[in-house]
Amino acid sequence: MSQITAQRLAQIPSATDLYNIDHLLSDEERMVRDTVRKFVRERVLPIIDQHFEAGTFPRELIPEIAELGLLGMHLDGYGCAGLSAVCYGLACQELEAGDSGLRSFVSVQGSLAMYPIYAFGSEEQKEHWLPRMARGEVIGCFGLTEPDFGSEAAGMRTSARRDGDEYILNGTKMWITNGGVADLAVVWARAEDGIRGFLVERGTPGFTTSDIHHKLSLRASVTSELHFEECRVPASNMLPNVKGMRGPLSCLNEARFGISWGVTGAARACFETALEYAKTRVQFKRPIASFQLVQRKLALMATELVKAQLLTLQLGRLKDEELLHPVQISLAKRNNCREALETAREARSILGANGITLEYPISRHMNNLESVFTYEGTDDIHTLIIGQALTGINAFE
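^ Acyl-CoA dehydrogenase domain protein, sequence as received from the core. Prediction below:
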């Protein structure tokens, strides 16, 4: 064994990178991660508590987010950065270390609003919308969930009736992130030939939005209902290159990918807070980090964080090599959301009563993660997706 190797083995690994995952990243990937981390530390963390408490989204950050190239960053051309899936994932991780609402904004813009135009739109639609969306000049939202149809999205009642050169939309979409601030809605509706996607601009007669208030989760995020009443859109606003549930489900897979990464950032923020607190909080004349039960909690949190990070890194590598299967996304989304939420709860227990205040980020993350645990496919739905892949038997019906 060389002296250098011995010295390296003697070094204690970083508490937040026990498996030296940093070593597995390329220089570009580390640069993206560190750039977004710096932005979150300097621009997000100083203001996010106030926005969470007030129930407002920090819209003033949108130009800076766009300037960093984060909107549609995993798409090629049309003013988009064209970065790898791993780079996109790392950006989501760092954004959600700030707040789930911020990562949700970027996820919806890039994966749920820009991606369907990129994947299923006409060339005219791509050229018209994507560069402006990448610059943050046009904000998008994704209209799929309805008041009576969440997990069973295929049962949607929103309809699109052809009338000459137009479609007439009627229906309601609910729990729509960015809905109240969006300039453009990607709306999925039932047409005569199946489920179709439509681009509906703010200000179109018959299209209105109403924000959902009194939320205890994702408070620094805009959540809305979309209402369509005899709303006429040009037939040219239909996404021409997809029909059926393949369209919206493929968009959801894009978003779920980012969520799988994002929640590791929230978990890391909770773990780091609990670790630092445990080392400085003195009880019975010594830091509580010296107690066996506290060390057990920290060890469990660190272990789950490593596992989640390794899951997402492999997920990103598979996506970049075009080998990714949807069930792999479901596995990562289910595991990482579940363990991030458990990490937040364990971290809160270490802080005791201090953990419920906005002086520390833990309860904010914990409340946010309750929503992330549910949206883009509930824990139950992803469990059944995995079960079907394992058994070949559909348990949904």
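The chain has a mean pLDDT of 95.
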